[in-house]
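Researcher: I'd like a candidate sequence for this fold, 424 residues long. If you have to choose between options at a position, lean toward the conservative one.
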């Protein structure tokens, strides 16, 4: 077989066979297929698409290109979640402890933030003492004793995806639904869980800007996961406005802890609850999720995980955000909040130093925003819009951008349900 012919077939809109896709991915992993050949093939796929069958072959080939977690000893109790990346999204810190409190096994391998979306590892490491770099031995030991781990990759998982993602990033081929589906699902398959829930974000602050493409991506990922023998479902959730009022690394953990301490009347809990319900998949699961929060069992699990990963015993008894400065930002007019722009809010946090533009950048863990209003709220003139936390005094100038992110007018608008669709 020659890679030239594989590229030629896709350029001529033919469906690739399993053998052709395996040949390509093996060549990507061992270096026998050159980057320029993969780049050409990626572009042909981005333009001509893939059938569901081709997407499945690509997903499994990438999942098998490196190491995988072996969770077979835990049977059907293993769960995992994935978010396609949003703003103020700290659902992992609620879903994983709730599921562990309900006896599920949660081995979550997460990533770092890049661009406007935050990364779970950065958020956890914003907590004093916490590490997310665990040896394989420590990873499994914690999983056995506590039932939950959130950490970085312990081994070389999906090396083919790493190479292809870097190529996609510089060849305008990231936004291809089969390529995104295969990239996400290959990592989920290699992470080993039997039950998987996907949170596909849709709106201004997300990869997918409209419901139709979010639905297409979600459907394809669910079908691909099912073909691979996993139980998979997806939510499509709103990302026009930030999911929680807290944006920034330590602040987002604080927002999740507030929920685990009983604040369940907020969109962050609503989405976390819906994700847990999909993973539990039985009648009346909502009640068990709420009980796990109300009883404090989920908070105890989260504390147990943080302490196992290096935090002090009283970690959740003190504020987690330790920024040098804070300023309260007030509205210059009264009315109804039409929207809180997720992208503008995220870019402000990025400018404050809370995110990175390049992989090697370091971040300021405690800077960020806490909004006091959401879409649909009434606000008076001089009402509190948000509090901005920052480290460098000159950054006070960004307060203006926070005000710009919140649109206020006389028109009454209703709050939006954050769960837009469920795909089973
Ligand atoms: N996240 C991934 O892991 N892969 C993609 O292609 C897009 C988002």
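Model: Candidate sequence:
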């Amino acid at each position: 077989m020659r890679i030239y012919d594989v590229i030629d077939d896709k350029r001529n809109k033919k469906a690739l066979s399993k053998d052709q896709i395996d040949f390509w991915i093996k060549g990507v992993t061992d270096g026998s297929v050159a980057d320029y050949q993969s780049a050409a093939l990626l572009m042909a796929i981005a333009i001509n698409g893939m059938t569901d069958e081709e997407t499945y072959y690509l997903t499994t080939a990438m999942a098998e290109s490196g190491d995988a977690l072996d969770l077979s000893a835990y049977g059907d109790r293993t769960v995992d979640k994935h978010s396609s990346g949003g703003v103020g999204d700290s659902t992992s810190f609620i879903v994983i402890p709730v599921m562990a409190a309900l006896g599920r096994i949660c081995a979550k391998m997460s990533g770092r933030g890049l661009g406007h979306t935050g990364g779970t590892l950065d958020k956890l490491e914003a907590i004093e003492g916490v590490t997310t770099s665990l040896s394989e031995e420590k990873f499994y030991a914690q999983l056995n004793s506590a039932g939950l781990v959130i950490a970085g990759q312990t081994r070389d998982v999906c090396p083919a995806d790493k190479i292809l993602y870097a190529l996609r990033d510089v060849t305008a081929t990231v936004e291809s639904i089969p390529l995104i589906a295969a990239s996400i699902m290959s990592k989920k398959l290699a992470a080993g869980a039997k039950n998987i829930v996907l949170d596909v974000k849709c709106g201004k602050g997300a990869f997918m800007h409209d419901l139709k493409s979010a639905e297409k991506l979600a459907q394809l990922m669910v079908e691909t996961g099912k073909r691979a023998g996993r139980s998979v479902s997806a939510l499509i959730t709103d990302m026009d406005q930030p999911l929680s009022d807290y944006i920034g690394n330590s602040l987002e953990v604080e927002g999740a802890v507030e929920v685990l301490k009983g604040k369940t009347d907020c969109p962050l809990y609503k989405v976390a609850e819906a994700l847990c319900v999909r993973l539990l998949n039985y009648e009346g699961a909502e009640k068990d999720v709420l009980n796990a929060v109300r009883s404090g069992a989920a908070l105890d699990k989260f504390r147990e995980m943080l302490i196992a990963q290096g935090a002090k015993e009283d970690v959740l008894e003190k504020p987690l955000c330790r920024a040098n400065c804070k300023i309260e930002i007030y509205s210059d007019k009264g009315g109804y909040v039409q929207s809180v722009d997720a992208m503008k809010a995220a870019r402000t946090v990025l400018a404050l130093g809370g995110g990175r533009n390049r992989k090697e950048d370091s971040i300021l863990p405690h800077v960020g925003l806490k909004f006091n209003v959401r879409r649909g709220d009434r606000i008076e003139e001089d009402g509190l819009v948000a509090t901005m936390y920052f480290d460098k005094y000159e950054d006070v100038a960004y307060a203006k951008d926070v005000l710009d992110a919140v649109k206020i007018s006389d028109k009454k608008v209703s709050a939006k349900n954050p769960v837009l669709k469920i795909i089973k």
